[in-house]
Amino acid sequence: MVYLRQGQQGKALDYFRQAQQLDDDPDNVSKWQSLVEASSYWAYLDEGDALRQKGQLNQAARAYQKAMPVNAAEPYAYLKLAELYQQQQNLLMLNRLTGKLCSVIPVMRRSYAAW
After folding, report:
1. Interior CA angle at 39 toward 36 and 40, to 5°?
2. What are phi and psi of 105, to 5 degrees?
3. What is the rounded distance in angstroms from the CA atom of residue 48 to the CA atom of residue 41?
4. 58, exposed or middle or buried, with CB in 10 Å at 0-12, 13-18, 19+?
């Protein structure tokens, strides 16, 4: 948990996966799964951010896309990918993503429909 709080998602993920494999208590299965999923989501976002800073935009987009199914209710992967598409001036993909984003953030649905 310390690594997770420190923002070291990759390291936290490794430890959560180890704990998940070693813990035989069935009452802890959902706890470890939840921690693995949360860490995975944020690790993908961190990976995408690092790749984007290096100018590896296609790889960054893939990292953000990997995060989406891990926690589809969280908007951050969608928002980061939208920023990336805007940076690339890829309006077609930005428009498609905005439609998906509307399903994740209900308030966006109203503003997008008005646009």
Report:
1. 80
2. -115, 100
3. 11
4. exposed
Contact between residue 47 and residue 63 where contact means Cβ atoms under 8 Å apart: yes
In the numeric block, which tokens belong to residue 39? 């860490």
Site of tokens 């860490």: 39
C-alpha radius of gyration, the chain, whole number: 16
What's the rounded Cα separation, in Å, for the pair 38 and 76? 12
Separation between Cα atoms, residue 26 and residue 50, nearest integer Å: 36
Position 85 scores a pLDDT of 95
pLDDT in tens, 54-107: 999 999 999 999 999 998 888 899 999 999 999 999 999 998 888 777 777 665
Tokens for 96?
A: 């498609």
Q: If residue 77 lies in a helix (H) or strand (E), which one and from where to where? A: helix 76-88
Longest dimension (CA), the chain: 52
